[in-house]
Design brief:
Helices cover 76% and strands 0% of the residues. It is an all-alpha fold. The longest helix is centred in the first third of the chain and has 31 residues, at 2-32. The protein is elongated and about 50 Å long. The protein has one domain. The protein has 4 helices and no strands.
């Protein structure tokens, strides 16, 4: 069940990470009237990565909580479906329980995404893709 739980979390995470970055990039370029990527500084790209990473971290935290509970010993012997674990989390802690660990997750993904997107865009400019 571990690999299936990872897919339930990682596929939406990857799609959302890219979508959030592209949306923030498009909005920022529209607001600043910067028509090409070369006109953006590394700090601007890093900032957009931080913003998109934070948003992605917030939105996907519930999936991560369910994923963690699916894999933990806390549910040994219990039904191990995504929906049953979600139901248990909701009954035990309410909606707030789906956002356990939100602060550290957002901090990690903010910094990581800022560094990743800045490095990606700079490398892409050096190597014509």
């Amino acid at each position: 069940m571990g690999w299936q739980a990872n897919l339930m979390k990682d596929i939406p995470f990857a799609a959302l990470k890219l979508t959030m970055y592209e949306a923030s990039l498009k909005a920022y370029r529209r607001l600043t009237h910067k028509d090409d990527m070369a006109s953006l500084t590394a700090m601007e790209v890093a900032f957009l990565g931080v913003v998109s990473g934070a948003a992605t971290g917030v939105i996907t935290t519930p999936l991560d909580v369910v994923n963690t509970r699916l894999k933990s010993a806390a549910h040994v012997g219990a039904s191990n479906s995504f929906m049953s674990v979600s139901r248990t989390i909701l009954l035990e802690g309410g909606i707030a329980a789906f956002f356990a660990g939100l602060g550290p997750r957002v901090a990690l993904f903010s910094v990581g995404s800022g560094l990743f997107w800045a490095a990606y865009e700079r490398t892409r400019m050096l190597v014509v893709l």
